[in-house]
Design brief:
The complex is a heterodimer of chains A (about 350) and B (about 120). In chain A, about 30% of the residues lie in helices and about 25% in strands. Chain A has 8 helices and 16 strands. Chain A has a 6-stranded mixed sheet with strand order 4-1-3-12-15-16, sandwiched between helices. Chain A has a 4-stranded antiparallel sheet with strand order 7-6-8-9, with no helix packed on it. A two-stranded antiparallel sheet of chain A has the order 2-11. In chain A, a hairpin with a 5-residue loop joins strand 8 and strand 9. In chain A, helix 4 packs parallel to helix 5 and helix 6 crosses helix 7. Chain B is built from 4 helices and no strands. Chain B is elongated. In chain B, helix 2 packs antiparallel against helix 3 and helix 3 packs antiparallel against helix 4. Chain B is about 85% helix and about 0% strand. Chain B is an all-alpha fold and about 120 residues long. The model of chain B has no long low-confidence stretch (mean pLDDT about 90). The chains are: A alpha+beta (about 350), B mainly alpha (about 120). Chains A and B meet through helix 1, strand 1, helix 2 and helix 6 of A and helix 2 and helix 3 of B.
Chain lengths: ~350, ~120
Amino acid sequence: MKELTDKYWPIVKILFIPYLFMMFLLVYQIDYFINAPGGITEVEKIISIEYNEDKTEEGSISSTFVVSLSRPTFFQFLISSFSDYNYANILTGNSATYTNDEQNKISFLDKYTSVNEAIIVAYQKAAEINPEIVIDVYQKVFVRGKAPYLSFYDDIEFGDEFLYMMGDGDVKVEDFQEIGNYTIDSDSYDFFFKNNEGETYSRTLTKDEEEKKFGIVLYQYNLVNKENTYPTYHENNSNIGGPSGGLLQTLAIYNMLVEEDITKGLKVAGTGTIDIFGNVGYIGAIEQKIITAYVNDVDIFFVPHKSDASNDDYILALKACEKHGIDSTDWIVPVSTFQDALDYLEGIDE
Amino acid sequence: MSKYIELYSKIFEEFSVKEIISAIFGAFVYTSFITVPFIIIMGQVISVYLYLLTYWVVLIIIVMILLNYVFHHLIKQSLKLKHPEFKTDINPLILTNQIIIDIIFVIIGLLFLFVWIPILMV
């Protein structure tokens, strides 16, 4: 060690400052976000159903993911700017106030609930032609957002279930939409939650003096009651969060339930959230998703299309194709509902 | 194999265990100065250019082979600096070790490409 140090010490001395500078670039985070192309994931790797197991699928149905980096390091920001495919901008809104860990939790909550909605829509559609298929749905309310002024901010986690709160006149309020009507007389009320470990806890939440709000965002989600659902399904662990795979998950699950192969031997991908009524919703980073699909040679790519507004995902997708010199004909398909996607696939000649 | 063991025993005749450990440790520390930022850089490059992952894995394998060369070169140099007069030709020994480690790197890289990455990208 000593001999090497003696020999290389002059070089080490010269490189010391540039080395420290380089390490600074590699660890210093900035308040930006980067969206970059990611990859496609076959839905059957995430969800498997014990049904139609003899069926052979010639094609594939994949959801598309992009890389969303919040607070990248200076080096990541620098190298990202070398590619026209990437998009970087300053963090704003909730993304600016939430930590990366909190954004991950929200993202995986969205993924979990999105998969449930996809299962519900696919099973309900498949049940129309096969009465053997049964789905049972129930609702739960989860914590989906927290304002910085929320009391007990660190105790209440994203994804914790809201059970009830004790409103004015000691009324037990279970419907979260009624909270406003029962929190008029006082500023502080007891809220009851259930955490991921299944433990029930309560916290007294106080309204913010300026905002006159508790600072908690609650969403009601539709979930599958697995016990009363047939056929049974299994969800594998996933490293990719977010709700944007909803439409493709619905298509893939539906394909697992019906006898015919709706892929028709094609590599089907796409993006778009799904709600319980089968409506497709907008997603973010459409430009990066189009590029991801293009580099992965997909045959059909479904994109949400709800209006001709300039911020419509399909309009943005066409603009992205034009920007990057990608021919959008015959493979980018606008859809506004799950049925639209199904009709398009059914209309394809084998 | 017997030649390989013979070379090892010759080195142990010329150098004490402490000297050999010191040479390996020194080479490891100096190689780490390059390896640590390289690993961070590659991690960050992959995060931004994930769609080129296959190319990055191939590049990582190549750079790990080069770093392995640097590591062994530094061991050799350190031993030479300790005993400038030492006679044994350790090049075959260094080369053999290098090749074994390079093969391990290639295997790990291929496992990443074909097994772990498809599992992780779900």
